[in-house]
Design a protein that fits this description.
Elements lengths: L2 E8 L12 H7 L1 E8 L2 H10 L4 E4 L8 H8 L1
Parallel strand pairs: 1-2, 1-3
Length: 75
């Protein structure tokens, strides 16, 4: 792999399943991924302040805050 990315996935519902990159796409990206999962906005914010990540994906409405409040607290 040429590139390595760290991704934080924040979702409030484990029933939504896991997000994956299809093998055929993954082979073309020449990249590897570390996926970290959070279950709330506060958990995600805590993780972001203590780690260096390349990408964060989150549900719009989390149990404790919505995405706009999450972004506001990042600033």
């Amino acid at each position: 792999a040429i590139y390595h990315y760290s991704v934080l996935l924040i979702k409030d519902s484990p029933e939504e399943g896991h997000y994956t990159v299809a093998p055929s796409v993954k082979d073309r990206l020449f990249a590897t991924y570390d996926i970290f999962e959070g279950k709330s906005g506060s958990e995600g914010l805590s993780y972001l302040t203590s780690s260096s990540l390349d990408l964060t994906l989150l549900d719009y409405q989390l149990p404790d805050i919505d995405v706009l409040e999450f972004l506001y607290q990042l600033d």
